[in-house]
Amino acid sequence: MEKRKIIYKEVQFFWLSIIPALLFLSVTIFAYLYKLGTKPIPLYMTIIIVFIFLVIILVTYKMTIIIDDDTVSISFGIGLIKKTINISNIDYKGIKKTIIPWYDGVGIRFGNGIVLYNTKSGRGIELPIDSKKYIISTKNYEQIKNIIIRQYTFSQ
User: Fold this and answer.
1) Other C-beta atoms within 10 Å of 88: how many?
2) Does the record bear Membrane in its keywords (predicted)?
3) How far apart are CA 83 and CA 75, in angstroms?
4) Which is it for strands 132-137 and 8-13: parallel, antiparallel or unpaired?
5) Sequence-ordered alpha helix ranges (H) in the chain
């Protein structure tokens, strides 16, 4: 398999996922160790809860955007959730800056012809592909747009 040259990489940590999960893990472990309550949590339940929240943390703790010679990749956490978009499929003339409102939530959102990948509200880039629009949260809109246009024209 050919190793691709990474042209751009951005990592956004998903604090809204990490902090509550770590707090819940800490409370669960503390409750087990100190046998809190009238009916303390059993060991098997502690293990199940710790396992579930560790998986949640590993799958969602960050979002990574990578642009190489001919693809844009967005992955969450350790990479189990990943989307790869071929640059040649992007309508580079339709790329635009967008604002992601807080009420759109975080993570991956699917809606009326739109797929949203984000870890926070704020600035993003909209990539039109056929009848869909992919919106990705980023603080480097101009840089990503210029790289995609350069790679698109280079590949033609």
Assistant:
1) 12
2) yes
3) 6
4) unpaired
5) 15-33, 43-60, 141-155
84 Cβ partners below 8 Å, 6+ apart?
71, 72, 73
- Say if CB 60 and CB 80 are below 8 A apart: no
* One-letter identity of residue 117: Y
pLDDT (tens digit per residue) in 24-57: 999 999 999 999 989 999 999 999 999 999 999 9
Structure tokens at 97: 């800056």
Residue the block writes with tokens 């042209």: 7
Beta bridge partner(s), residue 76: 63, 81
SS3 call for 128: strand
Instruction: Write out the two tokens for 31.
Output: 């409750």
